[in-house]
Predict the 3D structure of the following.
Amino acid sequence: MNALRRLYFLAVALFLAAPLLVVAGVSVNEKQDLTFPPRGFSLAWYAQIFTDPEWRAALFHSLTLAVCSAALAVLIALPLAWFLWRRIAPWANVFQVLGLAPFILPPVITALGFLSFWATLGLFGQFFTAIVSHAIFFVTLPLVTLSLGFASIDRSLVEAAATMGADDRTVARTVVLPLILPYLISGYAFAFVLSLNEYIIAYMTIGFTTETLPIKIFNALRYGYTPTMASVSVFFVAVAALVFGSIARFGDIRRLLGALSSEDS
Amino acid sequence: MRREPPRSPADYAPLAFPALMLIVFFVVPFSIMIAVSFFKRDPAGFYKPDFVFDNYARFLSAFFGEVLGFSLMLAVTVAACCIVVAFPFTYLLTKRPRRVQTVWLVGLLSVLSLSEVIIGFAWSTLFSRTAGITNLFVAVGLMSEPVALLPTFGAVLTGMVYQALPYTILVLYPALVRLDPTMTEAARTLGASPMRAFFNVVVPALRNTIVATLIMVFVFALGSYLLPQILGRPRHWTLSVLITDQAIYQSNMPFAAAMAVFLVLISLSLVGLTLLVGRRENAA
């Protein structure tokens, strides 16, 4: 029975890891060929991400987009989650539904909505439109983690502070904020990683004027193969593993996911 | 601090910014898209304001029916494959020590967050002639020479299962991790084998969860827009691919919008169905 379970886990792990292992393999090929096992060994394709002006620009665009849009998503989610926790206002749940909706619907739909919106305004193709679009699309993630964070606050702590004479603002700054900080950081991190990887919305808002890394990979893919795609892919996997690994190291990722997914469904 | 109803307009202040952002940048774009679906196509620009049903009438063509049928069939197949693999896996995972669970969850999240572009590229490499899995088969003597395994339906299906599997496991995880362990213990005490306890106790107890997850994964798979393009032939294109294609390459925004509205209706009715199934489970 135990052996059977091991075999099963191994099969799932292999299925999930196999394509990434092959990509990691071809990324160290010495020549510009798509061969596995790799011939020779070279890290030149990793250096390319930073030295080639086009890849470096795409990396820069992607990072700017992810940093800004995740921050904006948190800025939208934080007051909303706080309000829903602090006040009894059933109709305000409408905004919670609006915050969850873009994430549940197929992404093509949201992307098309943004495309028609920015085109109608005549702002189509400007970089900030992608930041706003990503922030709205990924607002679900900080909203869910923050709602979870607020729900975990022991209300008697807050009450004690209020009895001692602290007003709402002081309570928020000295009691509430430190307690929800881990949830705020995980919400930001989730939005950051997903924004970094997002293709269709970035493509439909700024795809004609600017290349982010996923757009650059897809465009390059259409003209054939360059090993830099492989090295960038490995870079992406590493960033995701690093971010989620840190969340697991410093927080309780099991609890975060136990609630995250049940809120989703 | 107890929750209180807002008393003065100032109490509503925190809501202002999120509400404004969500209305201006989600509700308005969504409404514009619905409006555009009734507009006329303008070959020179994007579209001309109008009120016509032409874009919806195109759904009645045999071509559209084929694409829709294929999209639904593909999404159902992906969802079924994912549940069959993920349900027993997630159940076993929740029985492992916390550390093991954490490592798996980090790995699953990392795969789930990967761009569709990267998943498509990775599988196209694994299925290629020069760097693909068939080289391994040749090395162990199963095949005489390496072949390309794409573009095929199997490649599209594999890529989409790969994309949806971590999602399925993470949707199932909360329900399974909270499952009362005394249920299976009782079955085991009464002499059931672990396998029997799983199929006769765990599966029936979570029947509604399974159905709800199936629908969630189905909607998730409907949204796949790149994998059919990278791993399949044009006849493997789904509704999502077609929407992108019409909007970007054919510059037919009104038709793309009409298809998107249609896709919203399918997804929303299915998500509504999940909520209904979930409610019944809570009531029971």
About this structure: Strands of chain B lie at 40-41, 47-48. Chain B has a mean pLDDT of 85. Chain B touches chain A through 96 residues (CB under 8 Å).
